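User:
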Amino acid sequence: MRVLVTGGTGQLGRFIVAGLAEAGHDVVLLGRKPQPGHALHAWSLAETAPELPPADALVHAAFDHVPGRYRGGEGDDPARFLRLNRDGSAALFEAARRAGIPRWLFLSSRSVYGDHRRGEILAETDTPAPDSLYGEAKLATEQDMARLAGAAATPVTLRATGVYGIPPGLSSHKWDGLFRDFLAGATIEPRIGTELHGADLAEAVRRLLEAPSEDARGAFNASDILLDRHDLLARLKKQTGAPRPLPPRYEGTLPGIMATVKLQRLGWRPGGTERLAAFLASLASH
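Assistant: Predicted structure:
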């Protein structure tokens, strides 16, 4: 399968590109930055009428935001944020329709459900109610994709939770700052959240693209473990022997947790705490 991937050099896109290539698919990057081993087709979210090469599928993982921030990623320019992420995505899907690409996958977010859904199970059949501009932009793009696909293409949305792991080709990860602060003796605020390893995200993308189109359309949740910072740093403390006090456990209402039954019906199984343990063990070699 020839797959066009936007955001392929980003933190999440690198996992997706590596997973698709390992499965034998021909990956073409849409963007400005080349990546060894893959063809590059020039494109950006700022383009209003892009032209795309022929392909069997499009994976849209690009998202413009303030570095390190998704919620609040608009910074002080929400108009630009929406112009690039919503309008730029719509232009991309229009180009995919013109190019005759039959399958489209958009990397969306748990944020479309809204952070007010604390302590609840979040299902794809629930009515989205985002309470951040980030979530609103993701939901608007989901809706634009479905509208533009019409009968010409099969659209699928992958709503992902927080993603951890070292992206292929990079040496840093999302918890670098947290781990440095903990090992330096800084006070760490309690927090709990849902997490998913990048390799499991990539596996979800692969399974959605390879499944029969009638089984892989609409929205799919992707999430794995509920992780308290106390437990995460306890693992790090045991591994490093650092004589640092752990933060207290989070005592508030748990976040909403996405059900992943739909993905599991396609044979998807995330790595759970075993994959988390393997990730932490791998840090010793970096």
